[in-house]
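Deviations from the work plan: none for this task. Representative record:
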Amino acid sequence: MNEISNLNSVGKSINHDSALRQTTGEAKYIDDILTPKNTYHLALVLSPSPCGKITKINKDKALSLKGVEEILTYKDIPGENKIGPIIHNEPALAENRVAYVGQPIAVVIAKTHDLAQQASKLVNVEIVDDDEPIYDLRKSVKVNSLVMPKMELVKGNSKEKIKNSECYLEGEINIGGQDHFYLEGQIALAIPDEEKQMTIWSSTQHPTEVQHCVSNILGIPQSKVTSKVRRLGGGFGGKESQASIIASITALCSWIIQKPTKLRLTRKDDMLATGKRHDFISIYKVGFKRNGKIEGLEVDLLSRAGNVADLSGPVMTRAMTHIDNCYSLKDVTINGYCCKTNTVSNTAFRGFGGPQGIITIETIIDEISRKLSKPIDEIRLMNVYSTRNGLKTPYQQTVLDSNRYTEVMNEVFKISEYSKRKNKIKLYNEKQELKGSPLRKGLSTTAIKFGISFNKTELNQAGALVHVYTDGSIRLGHGGTEMGQGLFIKVAQVVADVFSVPVGNIELASTTTSEVPNTSATAASSGSDINGMAAYDAAIKIKKRMTRVASEYFNVPVEEVYFQDELIKCRNKSITFSELAEITWSKRVSLSSTGFYKTPKINWNQSTMKGKPFFYFTWGASISEVVIDTLTGECNILQSDIVQDCGSSLNPSIDIGQIEGAFIQGIGWLTCEELYWNSSGKLMTTGPSTYKIPGSRDVPNILNVKLLENSPNIEKTIFRSKAVGEPPLMLAISCWLAIRDAISNYRQDGIVNLNSPATPEEILKAINY
Amino acid sequence: MNNNCIVLNNKKIDISKSNPNTIVLDWIRLDRELKGTKEGCAEGDCGACSVLISPVSGGKFKPANSCLLKLGQVSGSEIVTVEGLGNQKNPSSVQKILANLGASQCGFCTPGFVIAITGLLCENNKPTEDEIHDALAGNLCRCTGYRPIMDSVKNIKFKHNFRECKKWDNTDKFQGKQAVFYYPKTLQEAYNISLSHENVKYLSGGTDLNLQSQDTKKKLNYILLNRIPELLRIDEGNNEIQIGSSVTLEETLPLFEKYFSPFAEILRRFGSSQIRSQATIAGNLCTASPIGDAAPSLMALGSSIEIFSNNQKKYLAIEDLFSDYRKTVLNPNDIVTSINIPIPPNDKKFYAWKVSKRYDQDISTVSMAALIGMGENNIIQSCRICFGGLSATTFRSKEIENSFIGIKPDQDHTKILEITEKSIKPLSDLRGSADYRINLALGLIKRLLFKLLNNDIAIEVMKVKIDE
């Protein structure tokens, strides 16, 4: 990295590249792109039944509407009716059977969006319920209804250790799912080209997978499909694999009628038909010493995979590899069951299993602290990764920067005035009790360690394409998608600094598979890590060539040429960047380059669940204070303090935006966002009127966010920064633990039986348990 | 006769060739090709579709959900979309500050926030934290966590000089090919149209009705009630206030704040500013939902409605209005003309609370309103207590009320709780189980008794401050 002579923009807080375009309404999302005049609109026909055999699809009534062109089913698919990011086993359109309420069965092609919607309601699908649907995770495990074999992560001998422990606890935690509720619903626009080519605009985190799925469903080579996206109106994991289904169906329709088609899901259809965060049940047994040191731990993790695998395996893997969180566990057995149920196939969601794993151990730590009547922080210290307690994770990776735990914790204790407030809360609760008031406060801490890299090693690669034009303007493309997180500006900052030009000189291109092929999803918090490196690689290659040209031009050794403030200098001479670009062209030297990056030092054996899956860890800590009403279960989060380790941040304000956004999303997951299915397996919370994501008033009244200072990544990441997208979501567990603390402060018997999300109903249940 | 027109971003647009049932959001996006206004949910809960609209009687622009409005409802109005506020070259101060403070990440919700914030600042250029939350309750953002949005509003120096809008231009009707919207000027006229036409419904704000009619939306005929001057009146008497049935919730708030502030707080929570600018109390009553937020308070206060029925006026107590789940005793041609709410005398105290999963813009799991008269020695002398969310219609029980009479709030109140528990049989649904609803009813009664003793202590979690 020492080739960078003059840092202009990296490390500075620079606005999101589209900020003003977005606030003025000029930024275009897929539904805003001007479409060709003869574009047709699509609507899905969804299964009304949780399982059974399709005996008849009556299309006549729908087809009789003027302007309805066609209604397609799986029979119209020229290629393969198989989607699925890892195991290709998910039909885009149901074949002979349906497996959940909301499963796409057919697709209506009509002149307008409204008409397609109207017609889709008139398609009558006859289904014979010839099977008993499964919804219950325990029942799934019992009858071995799993989407993949049970997974096991074992280290040491937990059984023996638990048996011989001084203290013992067992319990279970019900952890609810979560809808992504991206503001822009799933959408795709397909435009057929000549030579059987297809261009597909899709609101996707994974253009390459869209390309593959479209090629697959149409039975044409990948080279004929171009997948594009400029921006997403939010993704959060919900458009990692799910967007491919929507895009494939859109491409199918376009292919059949050879006209442009657009499929925009209504909010209701989106919530019914696409996957969500997995709900989990964690069942644990833990043996520990009287001082709080965990001796042995056994956890069964049951996840609702839904009807097919989708990403449930990797999600479970991440849950299992995050059970340890910040704690050194020597004897541990973790069993993972991905349950096959008659519900929509669940998928990636910010944190990707990490939240479910971490809330499990954090609840266990909290339970131990209540059992022993010791402060939670003392139990943490007893178990945290350290040279004394051990640095090896259950999956055999060594935690190299465990000192960061102490750093983030100490910092958050300091900024939150933790010990002072702890006493204040004690007094407050005593006063309430005396008055006969139903209010109680609670306060708690959380620390998070989160592994960065896709568990699946081969996904940790990225490509980029940089062009310098003869006027000195620069165009940057890479495989990452912009979904609001600020990836484009961060990568542009990297490239701008390589050339020492203002970041505004970098033109940002839509993400396109024809420019940068074979990419990974923008997921796993990896966006700027891997795309930033790939773009850096591309830019450096061009810079080296330009440096050579400059050295010839100045007639000095290359070592003396340097780029600074839009100039290329040596000794007392200089030329502008655009002059050098023009000269480079005239010397017939290429001004364009691809870039490539693969994350080093990682390996993972999925069958033994051992290896070094993560390039590095990020660390964060948070403290939250809540007040609850013990008569109604209502809750208000009064204050949260957060310290997050972003390494040397590429763009602090963008990173803080990620931290705050993730944290509030975590609060939603743990408090107000409740998915409710009726007894016939139909999701009843299918819009914001029934599914409540946090509003502005649900943000803690006081929210202090701080990046850990002077803490470059110990690994050679792009400018020693660290990933930030997912980890802060789990810091919201401090709110969950604070609610538990408040309940405990009311009950005063150490028993807290709380399910997540901690809605007022669940809180009241725990109070009266 | 004049054509039906809308002034959109300062430009007059003839809409008479359109279907009056077209949703305004679709008209903006598809007909006018202005793509800044977004569809996020199409049910008035996310705010991405927000626009500014002039009030029927003129005045300052108000934010509204364009996904819940039909073109025929807003003929004659003025509408401003995000494009009308500024562009990249010349952004409005709101657009500029949101961009500069990191308040837009994915950006899909952003135009809606720009509208809601502009609407707020037009009314109030120094809003408090609470007032900002209140103004943004109808806008969801999934990316930022709201902090930068809040900071933007707090730090802005607002300079958008909207003139006062004039009264809506009025025509007699909006005749589309498939449907017609009538704009009567008098009650009798409205009544006659209803009597002589089949397939026609009364409509005012439409925030509920337009949701229900999504599937068959093209062919419905409506009689618009919000252009009848008589229905837009507010009368503040000595003992009673009368709210015309087409007065919007937003317009009723100041009076409610003055006379029964707990009710005002419930109305603020139950509808965002975008909803309140259109919705009416009469509408909330006539949909007869058991979880409608207006009925329990109105009933507890002893309110009545005035009904116009073929040139005759009738009065009906709120408790006699509902016949069953989502049904009223009203004749289809009857028009509710006003809501008459007695002002509680000094010796009576009014309380109202609702409990919902989220504080703002959520439907009650259970709500309760009570009007309590305290006698000498702190003995309860009179009690009207009503609940939402416990039964098919708003619930009031003489037996429960009687159990309050003659006791002191700090006395043993087991009997009240027993009687209450015995007399309610709520349902389980996505907003709460039957058990929870019972516990909430009991919890709210306990809260009421606590409050009668400690009137000055804030007992609602949202009012607790960190430093207490």
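Residues 141-178+276-394 of chain A form a domain with the Aldehyde Oxidoreductase; domain 4 fold (CATH 3.30.365.10).
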